[in-house]
Write a structure and sequence with these properties.
This protein is an alpha/beta fold. The chain contains six helices and four strands, in the order αβαβααβαβα. The mean pLDDT is 89. InterPro entries: IolE/XylAMocC-like, Xyl_isomerase-like_sf, Xyl_isomerase-like_TIM-brl.
Amino acid sequence: MSCCPIFEREGIRVEIQAHPWDFCEESNETVDIVKSFRSENVKYVYSVPHTFFYDKGKGEVEKMLRYAGSDLSHVLIADTRNHTKHCRYIVNPPGVDAAVHQHVGVGEGDVDFDALFRTLREMKFAEQTFKVGGAPIVAASLFGYPEKMKYQAVETRELIERELLRR
């Protein structure tokens, strides 16, 4: 039985996110799953701090956002480092199955935020309204340094407002 009729009847927007070590890890394959539902009730969440995991270290933010297109309804903002570059993380013993999961302040990592915000503006992301659930969501998704949270959360919100809402 498909859940879509229930979501459609109840007016619920379900958002699916690719996530490291979950059932769907890469951006485009997750977007393909969302598109396969052919439902206005099922949309895609792009988590910026998972950028380099989503496309195996390339970090092609613009390509991933454009691929999601009108199915993109939610963006989580934080920075991260490209775990595939420069032997940044040495784990002993070699071969250990480990992940460095970072959601750090914008500017502390390797994500191309100029490309991210430019692409979202070109897509008119913040201006759209979805048939289900209304407005798109852009939110800070920081963790790892609680001592920085009181100012990084504010800085991230202000960045979102400046870049997407032109405040």
